[in-house]
Amino acid sequence: DAKTTQPTSMDCAEGRAANLPCNHSTISGNEYVYWYRQIHSQGPQYIIHGLKNNETNEMASLIITEDRKSSTLILPHATLRDTAVYYCIVRVAGVSNNAGNMLTFGGGTRLMVKP
Amino acid sequence: GAVVSQHPSWVICKSGTSVKIECRSLDFQATTMFWYRQFPKQSLMLMATSNEGSKATYEQGVEKDKFLINHASLTLSTLTVTSAHPEDSSFYICSARGIDRTYYNEQFFGPGTRLTVL
Prior knowledge:
- The structure holds 2 protein chains of 2 kinds.
- By secondary structure, chain A is mainly beta.
- Chain A has one helix at residues 98-101; strands at 9-13, 18-23, 31-38, 45-50, 55-56, 61-64, 70-75, 84-92, 109-114.
- In chain A, 3% of the residues lie in helices and 45% in strands.
- Chain A has a 5-stranded mixed β-sheet, with no helix packed on it.
- Chain B is mainly beta.
- Chain B is built from no helices and 11 strands.
- Chain B has strands at residues 4-7, 10-13, 19-25, 30-38, 45-51, 57-58, 67-73, 76-81, 90-98, 107-109, 113-117.
- In chain B, the strands form 2 sheets. In chain B, strands 2, 4, 5, 6, 9, 10 and 11 form a 7-stranded mixed β-sheet that branches.
- In chain B, a hairpin with a 5-residue loop joins strand 5 (45-51) and strand 6.
- Chain B is globular, with a radius of gyration of 14 Å.
- Chain A binds chain B through residues 36, 38, 41-46, 87, 93-96, 98, 100-108, and chain B through 4, 6, 32, 34, 36, 43-46, 49, 51, 57, 91, 93, 95, 97, 104-112, 114.
C-alpha cells in the first residue's frame, strides 16, 4: 500500500470547517483513499473513502485532487466531539486476499476542536 | 449494522498469567479478523490476521506462541496473551471484514481492550 503523509496536529474552532490534508504521491491507480478517526481510548471509526471523485456522506466530504496525489477530508461544522486522531490510508479495495485488506495506519493528524 | 464488540473492555492481571480477549461481529459474518496493538501515543500496529477455520498469519516480530489467536466461527475470534508481562500492557483492538455484499472487504473495528499487566 502507498504511504501517506499527514500533519501531526491541527486545531479548529468549534462550528468552523476542519480541513485535514493528506499526501499520497505514490498512490496506484487501483488504490482507494480511506479516512478513519480514533477518539481517545476507542477503536477506529470509518469516515469515508473514495477513488477519484469527490465523495460526501453524513459525516464528512472527501476532496481528491485530479492527479490523486493528495486529498482533503472536510468536516463542515466541527464540534468538540470531533476531537480525535484522523488517519488517511490508501489501499486496494475489492480484493479477496488478506494483503489487500490490510489497513496500515500511519501517525495520523491529531485534531483538537476548541470552543 | 456492522457492529464489532470486544470483551472485556479492560482487564488488569498479574505478571505470568494468561488473558483472553474476545472479538465478535454482532450483525454480520466475518471470514477475516485482524488484531492490532496500540501503545500510548502511538498508532495502531497490526499483529495478526486470522481467517475462520485456519491458522492466523502473524506480522514480523509478533510471537505466535505468546499471542494465541483462535477464529473458530464466522462471528468470533479470540486473542490469548499467554504469560503476560508488564511490557504487554497495551490497547488491543480487533477488526472484522464482512463477507456479504453489504460489508464485503470493509473493516469494522471493535472498541478495544485495555490490558494492564502488573
